Amino acid sequence: MGKPEHIHLLDEATINQIAAGEVIERPASVVKELIDNSLDAGASDIRVEIEGAGSKSITVIDDGSGIGRDEAPVAFTKHSTSKIESKDDLHRIITLGFRGEALSSIAAVSRVELISRTADCLSAVKVRVEGGSVGETTDTGSSVGTRVEVRDLFYNTPARRKYLKSKRTELSHITDTVTRQALGNPEVSFTLLNEGKVVLRCGKGELFDRMVQVLGADVARQLIPLEYKDDLLSLWGYISKPGYYRSNREMNYFFVNGRNISSPAISNAVRLGYYTMLPKGRYPAAVLNVKINLEEVDVNVHPAKRYVRLSRENEIMDGISSAVEQALKQEKLVPEAKPSP
Ligand code: ADP
Ligand code: MG
């Protein structure tokens, strides 16, 4: 293999593909980023349609605020966002997006068509982007909101495309993604269609209704409510009774300030609250919303925003463990300590 003679700057297209690889790992990442955008746009109804387990097409349709005519092409350039202005804003992120990377990353590795209309415009704007190059902007008809269609994901990155798993596996990642977003946003209705067939459909409601809809009534029956507040955090959601557990953390749904994250620390803190009530290596089901002061949470630690860093982690985890303990006690699932004679 030849070694380049000189150090040189990579061309724009190569840079974009490298960057895209960090954010967009598989079809489910596209679904996640597009739903995040719909939620940030204040959508109350989100519809996801996929074909070929996402590798043929992924379409997300929302009834959110929409994108203005002039802004639509800009949305596809790298690091362009309407959600923050300067680095100071990084310490008080209230939106799911803020890096301005999703649309540009998706568009670098697929063929995208965006149709969007804001309330103050009679017509919608339509933009096509292929392999990162933005085409002409045209007018079209549509209701207020945004529709993003992503076709032929990874068509220009054969290595990535080859790495895609079976349709079944990719579909289960997509379903898991939509399930997570749906659990975090019960006030928004969600529909997921695969090859025109309904995989998931849930109307707006309370968190408990949402759990019945996406996790099933059998699971929901095993859950008890939890509510907790101290100086540092507030918590609300549901945890499973001690008799119900899994061999992995797949039923751990955690939302920190509305953002679904993966957190072994929170998972362990929840487990600790059960003391010896769970067998070794077993995990409870938990759907937990954690609200912490924005300054205590660093959300800018992972390109796909899957993790956050908590500045007072130990105290927060202690709070979570005692919240779980209290919830189990309230349900009389923990024997009260006998008063000493
Ligand atoms: P980010 O979400 O980090 O800002 P994205 O690349 O995901 O970056 O999106 C770029 C911009 O495009 C957003 O900041 C937003 O202004 C606009 N946008 C994207 N999707 C939508 C949508 N569904 N509804 C309204 N605006 C959107
Ligand atoms: Mg985004």
Automatic annotation (TrEMBL):
DNA mismatch repair protein S5 domain location: 211-329
Q: Name one GO biological process term.
A: mismatch repair
Q: Which GO terms describe its molecular function?
A: ATP binding; ATP hydrolysis activity; ATP-dependent DNA damage sensor activity; endonuclease activity; mismatched DNA binding
Q: Where is the signal peptide?
A: none
Q: Name one GO cellular component term.
A: mismatch repair complex
Keyword vocabulary terms for this entry: DNA damage, DNA repair, Endonuclease, Hydrolase, Nuclease
Give the protein's function. This protein is involved in the repair of mismatches in DNA. It is required for dam-dependent methyl-directed DNA mismatch repair. May act as a 'molecular matchmaker', a protein that promotes the formation of a stable complex between two or more DNA-binding proteins in an ATP-dependent manner without itself being part of a final effector complex.
Family in the record: Belongs to the DNA mismatch repair MutL/HexB family.
Specify the protein name: DNA mismatch repair protein MutL
Source species, please? Answer: Methanohalophilus halophilus
Q: Give the fragment's position in the full-length protein.
A: 1 to 341 of 597
